[in-house]
Specification:
Elements lengths: L11 H7 L1 H14 L1 H9 L5 E6 L2 H17 L2 E6 L1 H5 L11 E6 L6 H12 L5 E5 L5 H5 L2 E4 L12 H17 L3 H14 L3 H14 L4 E6 L4 H15 L2 E6 L15 E6 L5 H13 L3 E6 L4 H6 L2 E4 L10 H18 L18
Parallel strand pairs: 1-2, 1-3, 3-4, 4-5, 6-7, 6-8, 8-9, 9-10
The structure holds 1-O-phosphono-beta-D-fructopyranose (F1P).
Amino acid sequence: MDTKPMDVQQSATLTEIMSEPAAWQMALRELRQDSTIARIVEDSRNRTEWLFIGCGTSFYLAEAAANSWTLLTGQRARALPGSEPLLFPELALAKEPKLQAVIISRSGKTSEALRAAKVFKSEFHLPTIGITCAPNTPLGEICDATIRITSADEKSTVMTRSFTSMLLALQHLAARTVKNESCLKSLESMAEQFAPQIHAIAEKMQGFVAKHNFEDYVFLAQGPFHGIAREASLKVMEMSCSYSQAFHALEFRHGPKAIVSAKTCLMFFLSENGYQAEEEVLGEMAELGGVIITICNRASEHVRRNSDLVFELGFDGPDVARLAPYVVPAQLLGFFTGTKKNLDPDNPRNLTRVVILD
Ligand code: F1P
């Protein structure tokens, strides 16, 4: 059933997406002064393995945070959806003696996230860190310490600036843990540099969506960008009710490429580390007739020749500082595709803002 065309400019979701650079700058400024961060760095100084937990978008945030943690600290870090430690506790490997649990939840109320936090605390006697965008939450009651990014909270059901702001907060925590001032400054300068770019990105994406109709969407990335690809896929699903999948870029050759046609939209998130191998896959998918959107730091001639739409960040910093901005074009793809289909991303079909099971 088509809903009436929404007034795009009045959309809470679009407003929240467009506010991301300002939200990032505010969050990163506040974190510098946040005594909770300093306390967490001190209290977790002997923890050598980290387990990030979340549900839905917050699970993909956990994936991106875990990869960022290992890249920044050298420590082992994993991500699990909140349900896994509840159903398969032995697979959570929660008996690791120096394990630190981090539970991610924008609302701080998601039942599976709270249950996982309670199990870590009461059954495994693990130290628990919470991160949320809401004040006074059940998550904050359970965890030993809770990071609150209230300036990034949203009215919308779908998570956009809360995802990127909490990811940046966890990257900030990782950099503080190893006293990496250069990385802290990179996160802050990325947010500043991205701010004037976001309007042109939105206009480009809106124009692209107006000109194309797709049957399915594929998001491809390696390394720390894989969690971003999975979140991108969920955004397009949630906001436009489209068929959408994410893969490791080089994995896509091993079977899934069977689906590629002129009706397939493929978004590549190119890393600096894996650029050459990833752009080879990009060229092959263009050969198969797929429509290619490329998110990269700088585009090679090969990328330009084989892409239908290119977004270049142009930021000279570590790959981890590009995770948050890389997801913004995908959030906009989901939003404009949804409104083109006469759906209302502010009230996404079948979804609630929080999944409460109790
Ligand atoms: C997690 C979540 C969201 C999803 C929807 C339902 O919320 O699954 O990822 O988009 O809003 O809730 P939270 O635990 O981060 O509040």
